[in-house]
Input
Amino acid sequence: MSITRYGAEKSGAGGQNLPFARAVEAGGFLFVSGQVAMENGEIINGGIVEQTHKTIANLIAILKEAGYGLEHVVRCGVWLDDPRDFWSFNAIYKSYFGEHPPARACVQAHMMVDCKVEIDCVAYKAP
Output
């Protein structure tokens, strides 16, 4: 079984190298590292709605780079900074995953960067 790693280039705050890959593909599975609402090394301005859209856009970009799409996502992990954002987040999330959502966990957590949401995922496509 081959393992493919998708970059750890300068993608962190301030353009620093991060000590992990954006995604790793193995045996038909793609494991995407936690994504936040980052653009050009900085968290975008805005509330949960804007940050959720950007976070999912970043997730989609990595999936696409590896040849996957949202239809291949089997599980997501979600961290919210503020539990009061749960319902607003769910409305945006559902607009992307529709009637066939993946399995998911969602918890409140203090974030490592100044963002409102972080999402990771596991996707699967038969090799």
About this structure: The chain has a mean pLDDT of 92. Residues 48 and 85 are 7 Å apart (CA to CA).
